[in-house]
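Need tokens for this chain, all 587 residues.
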Amino acid sequence: MGENFLKIDLNKLSETITAPRTDAVYNCHSYLTKVPLAAIEPLIEAYTEPGDLVVDFFAGSGMTGLAALRLNRRARLSDISILGKHIATGYLTNVSTVELTKVAQKVINEAKNAIGGLYLSKRISDGAKVEVIRTVWSFTYVCPKCKLEMVYFEYLDKKGNPPKECVSCSEPFVRRNWGRGEDVPVEVVVLGENNRHIEQSVTDYDRRNIRAASRDPRKNDVPSLPITADREMYSRSALGKWGMAETGKFFSARNSIALVELWKAINRLKGNDIRKKLRFAFTAILPRASMRYQWSPKRPLNAQNQTYYVAPVYYEWNVFALFGRKVEAVIRAQDEIFGRRTLFDAKNEDDIVYEIMSAEKLCHLTNESADYVFTDPPFGSNIFYSDMNLFHEAWLGEVTDHGAEAVVHTTGKRKNGAEEKYEHLLRKAFSEAWRVLKPGRYMSVIFGNSSGRIWGLVQRALRDAGFKSVPVHVGILDKGQRSVKGLNSGSEGVVTLDLILTVQKPGQEEQAGEPRSLTNGDSTALIQSAIKDLPAKGALNPSHVYARVLKKAIEKHLALDDLHLSNVLIALRNAGYSVDRKTGLLF
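Here are the structure tokens for all 587 residues:
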């Protein structure tokens, strides 16, 4: 489609796109900072027509490709992420749901037979042998003064608050100052006689099965990769301190054995597509099947996908229960993806293609071949995808090249010059986007960061790549449901909203002209203006104010290198606003 045939009505694009992370596709498989389909589809519809080619060179788990598929567009996806391609391929594999359900049960039965009764417990009410649904484990802390070994779980109050002191000698309890003993199981959850989940204390029968698993040599067969000291997440997660610098250490002995047997059963399958789909379901359960699945007094808090964190009380979930439910989720996601493909040519496998490739050099794309670019680059120093992907990639047998990752290191030797390297990579990536885009066409970039300096870096990279200096549209992306950390954005400086910048490549008849320099903006004045314009009704969080400051600055081509979310928080407090600790909203 040539540049003269596409008419964009920017009035149809709202300032804020709200796309909650609650749909079946989004929740089917975890990947850091996924963009919901509902956020991508309005932009693809605005900037393309059916049959057009959409490009995403920071494709991650392939959500842009799924959105393009549902809207009858073609897509070329690329990334350096081995896990990302695995997830995207799993989403894009369409299989018989009847056959998938049948084969999934077959591999579960094979793996269950192989592990024997390791997941069995005795129901206390009637002595019946039942399968464990999940087990609660607790850290044991050692008092530095009297050496009492304190099982953390046993001394929590009803709200889950930790003890204040040693119960024996009154030494103040400070987690980082107390040593660690052995983790111990404290509760199991099983089906009661009324067929409802019940919690009961761990019995000797449970302990015997757990000990049997700890002596089983198969626990050492779990695929594992080292998280070395040069990795950012090694420092951020204090892995060396706790002796957890290897991915396999995050699984209990019993779950290690169950996962190994299930993985073997899946990989013995002959049918390629069914095997591919079940491998996809398997990797989707790994965080929950690990010790990273947090306990809380009210409900499970799930795994922390952005860090290798193990909470002092955590779950050991029955692997087969997790896998059975995940297969059902995979089927729901498949229905969402392929159910709308009324006009799509299912026989053309080349319509959605994913390549492992650096964004710096898009060798698979020719000049002026793309109708639209939608991409979601890594957000500076926020998240280190390749470090976290090791957890899954240990099972896949391939590892992402972390040396090519577009991130800003904040620890170790790689900290020096990290921002300059990040800006260089973004500039190269955006230059490649400019090369492959047809004249007059558009690129939308989703980005989020609490530092105005990083935003200035992004603005310069877009300008230097050759795009028009002022974006044609700046929108706010609200993914709705926020993490626990995100809810505390008023106190922790966490941005819970992203911006969507859409820039245009000059048309063939237009002169690119000299790159327009960024002018330094007045952060204080822009913040005060944003606060003044806050609506009287309708609760917002500090990130909304921050996003509006950035939006106004970018529209005016201003750099705000001295801006940080913390400046907005201070200004809000000075203006009489507070942040609700439970909701993260201003009042």
